Amino acid sequence: MKRDKISRIFHVLYTVHRRNLPITKVKAKPRTNQPKRVQFVTTEVRCQEKTRGGVRYEVILGEPEVKAAPPKKPLSPKSSMSVQDIEDKLKAAEERRQQLESSKIAALSAKMQKIEEASRKKDEQTNQFITATRDALEQKMGIVTEKREAYITDLKTKLKDHIENVEKTRLSLEQQTDEVRSAIEEKLKTASLQRDENIKKMLERLKEHEDQVQKVKSTNNAKLQELETAIQEKLEQARNRKEQINQEQIEKLKKNNSRTLEKQKSVESNIENRKSEVINLIENKLCIAEQIREKEIQKKLELAKKHNEHLNEVKQSLENRKAEQVNKIETKLSAAEQKREQEMQKKIENIKKHEKHAELVRQNKAVMAAKASSG
Q: How far apart are CA 89 and CA 12, in angstroms?
């Protein structure tokens, strides 16, 4: 404080001394005297002519008039001063300077007193402000600590509730997965049972169809045998008739001419042709019946294969759906667990941050208390 006061006093004295110094004027550059313009007076105008572009004329100027120089001012006589007058003036100037310095020093001392009073008041105000702010900060810190503790307790309760809810959801998801698995297994079992039953039914139908085919074959064979026996009987009858006719014709031929022999040959040829035609028709009918039966058997076998393929596809689709549902449930469970872990980590980090902040606040409070006790 003393050094500041001394420096301020020296600064004020230096400014006062600087003001009392004489001011030296800067010499300006000398001005150059420019020549004055000569005014010419017109005396006569000659040869005035008018043209399209304007007027043409000649002007004769007179001689310039010389002005008289201005009279010079008389010089004032020099004042003669004595040495005593100069000394008296210097003494008066010194006295005035001393009076000015004393008055300035008194004003500076008064200003310094005012400055000291202002600084003292400022220090008192700062001390009062520091005490008030310290009390307010202590109150705020107490409120903050209470709020922080309440917030931490609320967070802990919320975390407990959240963990309980997560466990409940996990248990419910596990129950749902078990139910879904059991339902899928039951559906697969029912589907497998239905498939086995359908296969059994198809096999029974195939057996029945084969039995029917065998019956048809047996009936067809019996009919063929009957037809063969009937044909043989008819052939025998025809032969007998032929023999009878031949005998009759021979007898007639013996009586008649050679024409009867030709007729006999034609009759025999007709009989043989009819016999061959009947045999061909029977064979064609049997071939057609066998082809139709084979086609029906192939169609039924193809239907059975298609049904088996459809059952296999249904089984595979059910297995794929089961696997997809299981994968979805597992992914959901893993995602829920990851989210729960992330939320737990975030909440733990927030709690750690709050604890660090509380520790810093406590340290600051302890430092402030130590400063207050030392002050």
A: 27
Q: pLDDT digits over 229-285, tens only? A: 877 787 788 778 778 877 777 777 666 655 656 666 777 777 778 777 877 887 787
The two three-digit tokens of residue 28, written as one number = 């300006």
Q: What are phi and psi of 61, to 5 degrees?
A: -95, 150
Question: Distance from CA of residue 368 to its chain's centroid?
Answer: 49
The residue type of 174 is E
* DSSP classification of residue 52: S
pLDDT score recorded for residue 66: 56
| Distance in angstroms (rounded) separating the CA atoms of residues 244 and 309 | 69
CA torsion angle for 309, 314, 316, 322 (degrees, to 10)? -170
Give the rounded distance of the alpha carbon of 74 from its chain centre.
Answer: 103
Give strand ranges (E) for 41-158: 42-50, 55-61
The H or E element that residue 203 is part of is: helix 83-255
Q: Look at the block and give the residue holding tokens 């049997």.
A: 286
| Phi, psi angle pair for 55, to nearest 5° | -120, 140
CA 189 to CA 194: how far, in whole Å?
8
Instruction: Say what the pLDDT of residue 362 is.
Output: 79
Distance of CA 31 to the CA centre of its chain: 83
Report pLDDT digits (tens) over 171-204.
Answer: 888 888 888 888 888 888 888 788 788 888 878 8
- Calculate the alpha carbon distances from 60 to 66, 352, 370 in Å: 19, 115, 111
Domain chopping of the chain, boundaries: 146-374
